Amino acid sequence: MNIFKRLFRIGQAEIHAAVEKMEDPVKMTEQGLRELRQDLVDATEAYAKVKALAIRTENEQANCQKESLNYGEKAILIMQKAQAGQVDLVKAEELAREALSLRRKFYTESEALSTQVVALQQSSAEMLRNTEILRDNMDKWEKELRTLKARAKVSKATEQVNKQLAQLDNNGTIAMLERMKAKVEDQEALAKAYGEIAREKNTLKDELDTLLKDDALSIEKDLKAIKEKLGIADNP
Fold it and tell me: How far apart are the C-alpha atoms of 135 and 140, rounded to whole Å?
């Protein structure tokens, strides 16, 4: 049906326009799907009406066909009564002509309705196929929309992170960190230097104590030698 072709063109045009204009594809697609859902409801109602009309027309055709057969049988029956002498032949022929006229009338109506039934059934079947196609496409487009929305969230988050990383140095953060790093390294070097100086002082003190201790021993040795040479005994 032309209505479905129009709906498809409208849906495609809206999506293509959104992409080409770089507008928000999610919002545009949601709007397009809302409109198509309403169109699907309208199309389903239209199909139901055509289907109902086809059923009513088919019932009317069946009734006309039945009436046509009934009047044909009545024409035969009235002539049989005339043959049996139950009805005057002239009167019977008059009634038979009226019955045959009605039989032809209902037969003609039955044939016309039969043609309408075929056309309505074909139209109904085509509308049903197109409605199912539209419904299937709606399901597919809604799934694609959910995927698109998920991708859009990930893309937005990634864009935000990358933007922050790109602007990180612009805000002086990296330079500040480098200065802090250099300051910490200077402090560590200074602490290390103080430690080495402290160790050097301790080493010098130890050497001095050792030297002084050695000198005292040497003096005692020299004094002892002199006393031995002079024969002076050590104090008890």
Answer: 9
Q: List alpha helices for 21-170, DSSP H.
A: 25-83, 89-168
Token pair, residue 80, equals: 């049989």
CATH of segment(s) 2-168: 1.10.287
Closest to 37 measured CA to CA, from 11, 55, 12, 5: 11
List pLDDT tens digits, range 111-169.
999 999 999 999 989 988 988 888 888 888 888 888 878 887 888 788 777 777 666 55
Q: pLDDT tens-digit profile of 191-213? A: 777 667 766 666 666 665 665 55
Residue type, 222: D
Q: How far apart are CA 105 and CA 135, in angstroms?
A: 44
Round to whole Å and give the CA distance between 174 and 64: 93
Largest CA distance in the chain: 198
Q: CA angle at residue 198 from 195 to 204, to 5 degrees?
A: 140
Phi/psi for 87 (5° steps) reads: -135, 145
As a whole number of angstroms, the distance between CA 82 and CA 79 comes to: 5
- Cα dist. 129→51, 68, 124, 134, 232 in Å? 13, 35, 9, 9, 139
Nearest one of 156, 201, 115 to 123, comparing CA atoms: 115
Where are the domains positioned within the chain?
2-168, 178-236
**Which of 138, 130, 137 is CA-nearest to residue 37?**
138
Count of CB atoms within 10 A of residue 84's CB? 8
